[in-house]
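Researcher: Re-running this chain for the archive, since the previous output was lost when a drive failed. Same request as before.
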Amino acid sequence: MPSYERNDIIGKWSLEKFELLRKYLAGYLIVLTNQTWCRGYEYIDAFAGTGKPKTKDEQRYVDGSPRIALGLMPSFTQYHFIECANVERAYFISLKCFGPYISFRILLDCFCKLSFSISG
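Model: Regenerated structure tokens:
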């Protein structure tokens, strides 16, 4: 098991959050794609985690917020995954399996990048 998966354990509340996120984003994308003025829409995940957390009670892996967002159709036009914890780059590279057409960037140092963007 890769080391990034060992540290991402979630409880029941997170499973409920992921299901609400999936429903909300699916509806949001349908509304946006039907707007003639909207040329693109970006997904920003400020605490992306590993994208494949393990449930505490059932000991099974589930899709986290990055994989939920990447798996929706219609899709976002761009993705931004930000993670301040020490998550292996190999995980983020594996997200490219969702398609080479997907444009996204990953910031591994959340505090520094956001502070620079806000102040600079």
